[in-house]
Design goal:
This protein has 186 residues and is mainly alpha-helical. Helices cover 83% and strands 0% of the residues.
């Protein structure tokens, strides 16, 4: 029976790690779309303002180069506006954020299941049934999640492996807790 629990624990740990990665990738993909939206919106505002200045300057000066630059910048503003109409970066970002939150909930459930395995008060069958339900829930979230890019994967890798996002020392955890719940340590 101990072998079964050990195998189950290893399997749950593997699933937990996958969800940690998927959550962070979805978060980073949402951040990428938010940044893209902000950049495009800034360019659109600036190009619209410059176009307005160019049109106003034509009242006073009839130069061909002002007309050409105004037309080019106006075209840029129109292209960005068309991109916003056909490619809703804000909506896509929200879908990635929703997927990240769903995966965060599942991650916490896996962590709780690992705790239950370690405590040992439930039978192997009960724990395996919980794992099966959790796997089904995870697969549904994966099926509903939008696709991500290699850039988001790389940003997630840096966040998890280099910056150690989602990792806390005992002292960091203790700093959030009242004295009676602190462990003390590293």
């Amino acid at each position: 029976m101990d072998d079964e629990l050990s195998i189950l624990e290893d399997t749950v740990r593997y699933s937990f790690a996958g969800v940690v990665w998927s959550h962070k990738i979805q978060e980073k993909q949402a951040d990428i779309f938010v940044q893209t939206y902000k950049s495009l919106e800034t360019v659109r505002i600036i190009s619209t303002a410059i176009t307005s200045c160019g049109v106003v300057s034509l009242i006073f000066v009839d130069e061909l180069w002002i007309k050409l630059i105004s037309a080019l910048i106006s075209f840029t503003a129109v292209v960005i506006s068309a991109l916003f109409k056909s490619f809703s970066t804000q909506e896509i970002s929200e879908r990635h954020k929703k997927a990240a939150v769903s995966l965060l909930i599942i991650r916490d459930k896996y962590q709780h299941l690992l705790m239950e395995i370690r405590i040992g008060q439930k039978s192997y069958m009960e724990l395996n049934d919980e794992y099966t339900l959790l796997e089904n829930e995870k697969h549904q979230v994966y099926a509903d999640s939008p696709s991500t890019t290699d850039k988001a994967v790389e940003q997630a890798r840096q966040a998890l492996q280099i910056k150690k996002d989602n990792s806390y020392s005992t002292n960091e955890i203790d700093s959030f807790l009242p004295d009676s719940l602190r462990r003390g340590g590293d």
